[in-house]
Amino acid sequence: MTDLLNLDLSKNTEKIIAEYIWVGGSGMDLRSKARTLSGPVSDPSKLPKWNYDGSSTGQAPGEDSEVILYPQAIFKDPFRRGNNILVMCDCYTPAGEPIPTNKRYAAAKIFSNPIVAREETWFGIEQEYTLLQKDVNWPLGWPIGGFPGPQGPYYCAIGAEKAFGRDIVDAHYKACIYAGINISGINGEVMPGQWEFQVGPSVGISAGDEVWVARYILERITEISGVVLSLDPKPIPGDWNGAGAHTNFSTKTMRAPGGYEEIKKAIEKLSKKHKEHIEAYGEGNDRRLTGHHETADINTFKSGVADRGASIRVGRDTEKDGKGYFEDRRPSSNMDPYVVSSMITATSLL
Amino acid sequence: MSLLSDLINLDLTSTTEKIIAEYIWIGGSGMDMRSKARTLSVPVTEPQKLPKWNYDGSSTGQAPGQDSEVILYPQAIFKDPFRRGNNILVMCDAYTPAGDPIPTNKRYQAAKIFNDPKVVEEETWFGIEQEYTLLQKDVNWPLGWPVGGFPGPQGPYYCSAGADKSFGRDIVDSHYKACLYAGINISGINGEVMPGQWEFQVGPSVGISAGDQLWMARYILERITEIAGVVLTFDPKPIPGDWNGAGAHTNYSTKSMREDGGYEVIKKAIEKMGLRHKEHIAAYGEGNERRLTGRHETADINTFSWGVANRGASIRVGRDTEKDRKGYFEDRRPSSNMDPYVVTSMVAETTLLLP
């Protein structure tokens, strides 16, 4: 069967397979289906629009179920390889209106604003996630009915008793590089069975596209491994770290000499809209942002240099160089990167 | 799960110039190894050309939460046997943002000793014999031993073959090839006297590279045991009683020792070592008193002795060295959980820099 899965079709035919991917009705579930195209395509605007049954994803009523898919970004398919592609799409009504769960549309408008475009907004998103054993939904590597030894040995660790699921993480790293995603690194996290990958620096709307496709590739890989992927911000209550999606941000002005002043101004603006941001930063974040486990309390806005207990952290290098970027540590692992990246941008620049 | 292997084994060199660099450092206990990876835009072969990086020291017991950044300085590059292609493993040491080595950074002080002109001139060679024990996961009982019981007494296991005598050879053999691939100067392997215990040797390596190579070999070994679902221990006496401990015998020579007449230099050096027995022992690894009992091919921890071909001595000189009147000596005292930066630099310092 592997021989069939790995068939290199480029010798027999020009046809390619395009997997169209979209975000479903919960705002977190990823869906996809594939179609054959007569020849390779590398430009999203040249791909045909498509549609799917929105009544099966909670996105349309049964009597008027077609939801239209607009292709927005193309990536190489690491599973089918050859000239086959993955296509990140967003969703519209037949009349051409973005459906309510389409968060990309509003984000794209913000990123198209000339003030924003000029500032070349860069994002680096640190996506944390937890791997769970299938059927029991207990973290990978944890004894069923019990707990591993307390946190301490696991962060960036190696060894069969400290690192669980590395083959998934490593396969994901190479698959994303292959796909053309700007994946900048990976590390094992403080809670055993938890990992992180980083995407960036990506400009504007592509940050959201790349994180969503990276999430898609990750869940396809955990599917192959028979392991369950969770983006829950606090999968295990108690003295176990939560999972976040720290979002690093900079503009052209912040990256230029003297940029540190611009950074401080932006942080000041963010401090005034703490509640609005928190509401948009992911469901269940109140279970994670407690003020313990390297988080700031959800009701408090705090910023500091090298302070992992702050809402916003500025790196020592940025402080020393007088320019750079800042890290918003508030978004939870189940945040929507279109929402978070565009909101930080709007608050800081508009 | 060959679909997963296809992805893990993807050869990216045909799609991109980008490479993955795994930065490796020693954590807060002085023995736990940590690592994380980053993408670089093009292949790099020189450590000075690699960017410094940082990590969360509050998660490894190396910094407080409110000031958690610890800086990683790349010191040595090896080829990555797991990711292959142009991907690399990078041995680093750790500093405060102000540029001072943090307390657990033993490489910094060792590098100073190895940069001393007297030491450089003598081209210090090290051959380190790293012993280690493999344990079954969850029960932490040696690999191949019956759970709740013991194997037959020592005798049949040293360098043996057979399913009833040799446990974990696939780990040992893949480690051997992986280290050669990585560019580590691994000189050999053998099965040890206690069943489930093995040894590999790294060397001859010059100066600071002995420490870099041994730490990298340890990293690769624990990555492999992780793949095998087996636990690695460097404890010097994993099982009390009539079972051998695990050491890291350190073989040493200088230019003068390797030249004609070197045997006299060796004897003088051993004498100097004897005068600092207590200081060396204190730096030669935690728990060594459980191992250095005077039995099981060790010398008692409180006694300094040396002899030709004597495995019960603190320092052993080989028959070849005695015959050729030049060569090297073997310090048998370091335990398997020693820090090679500490041991190698201390031996160099005692024999070359102190009166």
Automatic annotation (TrEMBL), chain A:
<feature type="domain" description="GS beta-grasp">
    <location>
        <begin position="16"/>
        <end position="96"/>
    </location>
</feature>
<keyword id="KW-0547">Nucleotide-binding</keyword>
<keyword id="KW-0436">Ligase</keyword>
<keyword id="KW-0067">ATP-binding</keyword>
<dbReference type="Pfam" id="PF00120">
    <property type="entry name" value="Gln-synt_C"/>
</dbReference>
<protein>
    <recommendedName>
        <fullName>Glutamine synthetase</fullName>
        <ecNumber>6.3.1.2</ecNumber>
    </recommendedName>
</protein>
<dbReference type="InterPro" id="IPR027302">
    <property type="entry name" value="Gln_synth_N_conserv_site"/>
</dbReference>
<dbReference type="InterPro" id="IPR008147">
    <property type="entry name" value="Gln_synt_N"/>
</dbReference>
<dbReference type="InterPro" id="IPR014746">
    <property type="entry name" value="Gln_synth/guanido_kin_cat_dom"/>
</dbReference>
<comment type="subunit">
    <text>Homooctamer.</text>
</comment>
<dbReference type="GO" id="GO:0004356">
    <property type="term" value="F:glutamine synthetase activity"/>
</dbReference>
<dbReference type="InterPro" id="IPR036651">
    <property type="entry name" value="Gln_synt_N_sf"/>
</dbReference>
<keyword id="KW-0963">Cytoplasm</keyword>
<dbReference type="GO" id="GO:0005737">
    <property type="term" value="C:cytoplasm"/>
</dbReference>
<dbReference type="GO" id="GO:0005524">
    <property type="term" value="F:ATP binding"/>
</dbReference>
<comment type="similarity">
    <text>Belongs to the glutamine synthetase family.</text>
</comment>
<dbReference type="Pfam" id="PF03951">
    <property type="entry name" value="Gln-synt_N"/>
</dbReference>
<dbReference type="GO" id="GO:0006542">
    <property type="term" value="P:glutamine biosynthetic process"/>
</dbReference>
<dbReference type="InterPro" id="IPR050292">
    <property type="entry name" value="Glutamine_Synthetase"/>
</dbReference>
<dbReference type="InterPro" id="IPR008146">
    <property type="entry name" value="Gln_synth_cat_dom"/>
</dbReference>
<feature type="domain" description="GS catalytic">
    <location>
        <begin position="103"/>
        <end position="350"/>
    </location>
</feature>
<dbReference type="InterPro" id="IPR027303">
    <property type="entry name" value="Gln_synth_gly_rich_site"/>
</dbReference>
From TrEMBL, chain B:
<dbReference type="InterPro" id="IPR027302">
    <property type="entry name" value="Gln_synth_N_conserv_site"/>
</dbReference>
<dbReference type="InterPro" id="IPR008147">
    <property type="entry name" value="Gln_synt_N"/>
</dbReference>
<protein>
    <recommendedName>
        <fullName>Glutamine synthetase</fullName>
        <ecNumber>6.3.1.2</ecNumber>
    </recommendedName>
</protein>
<keyword id="KW-0067">ATP-binding</keyword>
<dbReference type="InterPro" id="IPR014746">
    <property type="entry name" value="Gln_synth/guanido_kin_cat_dom"/>
</dbReference>
<dbReference type="GO" id="GO:0005737">
    <property type="term" value="C:cytoplasm"/>
</dbReference>
<dbReference type="GO" id="GO:0006542">
    <property type="term" value="P:glutamine biosynthetic process"/>
</dbReference>
<comment type="similarity">
    <text>Belongs to the glutamine synthetase family.</text>
</comment>
<dbReference type="Pfam" id="PF03951">
    <property type="entry name" value="Gln-synt_N"/>
</dbReference>
<feature type="domain" description="GS catalytic">
    <location>
        <begin position="106"/>
        <end position="355"/>
    </location>
</feature>
<dbReference type="InterPro" id="IPR008146">
    <property type="entry name" value="Gln_synth_cat_dom"/>
</dbReference>
<dbReference type="GO" id="GO:0004356">
    <property type="term" value="F:glutamine synthetase activity"/>
</dbReference>
<keyword id="KW-0963">Cytoplasm</keyword>
<dbReference type="InterPro" id="IPR050292">
    <property type="entry name" value="Glutamine_Synthetase"/>
</dbReference>
<dbReference type="InterPro" id="IPR036651">
    <property type="entry name" value="Gln_synt_N_sf"/>
</dbReference>
<dbReference type="Pfam" id="PF00120">
    <property type="entry name" value="Gln-synt_C"/>
</dbReference>
<keyword id="KW-0436">Ligase</keyword>
<feature type="domain" description="GS beta-grasp">
    <location>
        <begin position="19"/>
        <end position="99"/>
    </location>
</feature>
<dbReference type="InterPro" id="IPR027303">
    <property type="entry name" value="Gln_synth_gly_rich_site"/>
</dbReference>
<keyword id="KW-0547">Nucleotide-binding</keyword>
<dbReference type="GO" id="GO:0005524">
    <property type="term" value="F:ATP binding"/>
</dbReference>
